[in-house]
Structures are given as C-alpha cells and as structure tokens.
Amino acid sequence: NIEFDYMGYELCSQYPYDTGEELFFAMTPTTGNELLVMKFNLANVGGSDCEIDMFSTGTSFAVKVNDGSYAPVLTTLLENDLSMLVTTVPVESGIEVVLITEVQAGTQIDDLTIYVRAKETNQEIQLQ
What we know:
- This protein is mostly beta strands.
- The chain has one helix at 54-57, and strands spanning 2-12, 33-44, 50-53, 60-65, 71-72, 86-89, 94-104, 112-117, 122-126.
- The protein has a four-stranded antiparallel beta sheet, with no helix packed on it. The protein has a three-stranded antiparallel beta sheet with strand order 1-2-7, with no helix packed on it. Strands 3-6 form a two-stranded antiparallel ribbon.
- A hairpin with a 5-residue loop joins strand 4 (60-65) and strand 5 (71-72).
- The mean pLDDT is 90.
C-alpha cells in the first residue's frame, strides 16, 4: 500500500538547512566531505492509514556513488530518516523521507545506487 519514489539528491554542508529555534537536530559532514541527501516520497495508495516501522524491521541501506564501494547510510535523529522511520502515513497522502551519507567534497555524482537489505530479500536499486 506504499509507493516509494526517488525524488533526487542534493549535496550540502548542513541538513536540514533551517537554523530557526524549532530545529532540534542538524547534521554536518566531517572535514573535507559533503552530505549526500537522497530524497524519497512515500505515498499511501491503500484504503487506510499505513503504519511504517523501519526501526523494528531491521532493514538496512547502503549507497554506492559512481564506481565506488557501498557505504552504509548515516543513522540520524531526523524525524524523516527512512532508515529509522516510525510513523503513520494517512490514506491518500505522502511524506518526504531521506537517506544521508557523506561523500568527498566536490564529488560529481554520475551514478547512484542504493542497496536495501531486508529480512528475506536484498535489492540493488539504480537511482541515477
């Protein structure tokens, strides 16, 4: 009942960007790196609200940029971190979620692949 759509990526020095008083947690990369923020939309296309608990499923993600090797995504305290997401998606609505990793500053991304490891299946998905 959930459609999972890749919306694109961005490279940044801080995520999220808002520096207002409501910002609870922000990430910054280690020296010489940038954050690679991959954005996805989770849309509930079913007939009722959908509970999502990625934390309990043990699903893990890794990312390969260009011809590099797979690196695990960063675990964050962000409310929209797909790897740790626990939420309810109301019927006929969607939410934006992210997976974040670090890449060397100045990296041009030509190919982007995500590896998803779940309990019973593993899947490699070419994003870009």
